[in-house]
Amino acid sequence: MALYRETPLPSVSSLTTEDPVLLVQLSDSHLFADANGALLGLKTAHSLQQVVDLACAEQPRPDLLLATGDLAQDGSVEAYQHFRRLTTPLSATARWIPGNHDQLAHMREAAVQSRLLEPVVDIGNWRITLLDSAVPHSTPGYLEDRQLQLLAQSLSEAPERHHLVCLHHHPVSVGCPWLEPIGLRNANEFWKVLDRYPQVRAVLWGHVHQAFDQQRNGVRLLASPSTCIQFAPGSEDFNVSNEAPGYRWLRLQPDGSLETGVSRLADFEFEPDYSAGNY
């Protein structure tokens, strides 16, 4: 029996295998039930709205929106409803995965009668697999056996497609010592699966609130800014940078190559209020 479906996987769009695919990634929005809720003094719904406006202006017709975890800070149904409403202007098919601040049951409630939480997407000449690395009541991530099996099945069933794999937690070091203990705890098991499949082109994640772009055995490794506060790259301890909120875009080409970039808000000023103590 299939691990994640019982019927053939339909495509989410009318794109052919000869068409490029435009993705927009939004990550770590940390929304609250209160639309005016703030994280370290930054109103997260307001900054998400600004980032969505920027993405709409720069990427007017994305094919797919990927929300890679920590959509909510308080895990409330209302926060996920805010996220759905605020991202509607992108007019794109969307998929969500949970992060360590999310509450999966409430995500499911907010995603009712939608395909937002389906973990596998065929689009253009690509397959995108979205994994749940969140562990209840835990900041670090872990991929349960069922998730690793889903990954292996998704990869093995579509050898003719190029593959992008998404999760919330970082499976490699991003160069911030304080983030090392709160990444993906079983990264070795994750890579053991991926290394068996040469059609994997890229791995994409959130969680680290900063841009990251490296290669591992020919696989592109990408992390992205938050739509709210940013973590200072290379920091020894928890530290918020003065970089602006932003998003990542990816253009997946039919031949398996990809183009990607990060875009941030202009004229953004924010002084973190560490006394709030609510991260």
Automatic annotation (TrEMBL):
<dbReference type="InterPro" id="IPR004843">
    <property type="entry name" value="Calcineurin-like_PHP"/>
</dbReference>
<comment type="similarity">
    <text>Belongs to the cyclic nucleotide phosphodiesterase class-III family.</text>
</comment>
<keyword id="KW-0408">Iron</keyword>
<dbReference type="InterPro" id="IPR050884">
    <property type="entry name" value="CNP_phosphodiesterase-III"/>
</dbReference>
<dbReference type="InterPro" id="IPR029052">
    <property type="entry name" value="Metallo-depent_PP-like"/>
</dbReference>
<feature type="domain" description="Calcineurin-like phosphoesterase">
    <location>
        <begin position="24"/>
        <end position="210"/>
    </location>
</feature>
<keyword id="KW-0479">Metal-binding</keyword>
<keyword id="KW-0378">Hydrolase</keyword>
<dbReference type="InterPro" id="IPR026575">
    <property type="entry name" value="GpdQ/CpdA-like"/>
</dbReference>
<dbReference type="Pfam" id="PF00149">
    <property type="entry name" value="Metallophos"/>
</dbReference>
<protein>
    <submittedName>
        <fullName>Icc protein</fullName>
    </submittedName>
</protein>
